[in-house]
Amino acid sequence: MKPFFQRNLRRALFGIFGATLVIGSLSACGHRGDREWGANISPEQYAQKRDKMVDRVAGKLDLNADQKKLLATVGDKMFEQRKALVGQTTDPRAELKSLIAGPKFDAAKAQTLINEKTAAVQTKSPEVVTALAAFYDSLNAAQQQKVRDYMEGRPGWFHRG
Questions:
Q1: Distance between CA atoms of 51 and 116, rounded to whole angstroms?
Q2: For residue 16, what are the CA distances in angstroms to 5, 8, 23, 61, 112?
Q3: Distance (Å, rounded) from C-alpha 126 to C-alpha 129?
Q4: What CA–CA distance (Å, rounded) separates 157 from 56?
Q5: Do the beta carbons of residue 151 and residue 143 sit within 8 Å?
Q6: Reported confidence tier of residue 73, pLDDT bands at 50, 70, 90
Q7: Nearest in space to 50 (alpha carbons), one of 77, 31, 84, 32
Q8: Residue 89 has pLDDT above 50, yes or no
């Protein structure tokens, strides 16, 4: 008769491998790290991420100092618009949950919420468009073509091949 360990070695190894795979997958999915772009990102965290993005794009497009400043301005205006869209709340889900908290859907509150968000987009969008236009217009023809190529989805800037 074979010892217990030899009889069940394959089963034990598959069990340990399976448990390790499941635990590893769950921990990987649960870990968000510093990649959170949620409503509560601080201005300092945003500035670091913006600078990293500007440096990356500047390397791909060969931007000069003035163009880098204009691109940073685009990022800042988009961040301001996002903050205005989120509003004063620290938990946007709580706002949405409050609409269905009672026995009936709170249509008046939902309409008010939509009106607030629409107003935020309407007031901040011209600033974003102006900043984006100033940046794009500052690019030379070759740089503009690189941007158009990227927008067409052609492998280029961020393609990891």
A1: 30
A2: 14, 12, 11, 49, 54
A3: 5
A4: 9
A5: no
A6: very high
A7: 77
A8: yes
CB atoms within 10 A of CB 67: 20
**Residue 86 to residue 117: CA distance in whole angstroms:** 8
- Report domain extents, the chain: 1-31, 39-151
Triad 149, 68, 85: Cα angle to 5°: 85
Cα distances (angstroms) measured from residue 111 to each of 52, 75, 94, 114: 38, 30, 16, 5
pLDDT in tens, 99-130: 888 888 888 888 888 888 888 888 888 998 89
Q: pLDDT-based confidence at 161, cuts 50/70/90?
A: very low
DSSP label of 145: H
Distance CA 10, CA 1 (A): 17
> What pTM was estimated for this model as a whole?
0.65
Q: Tokens 């999915």 label which residue?
A: 29
Distances (CA, A) of 143 to 59, 60, 77, 101, 119: 11, 9, 22, 52, 34
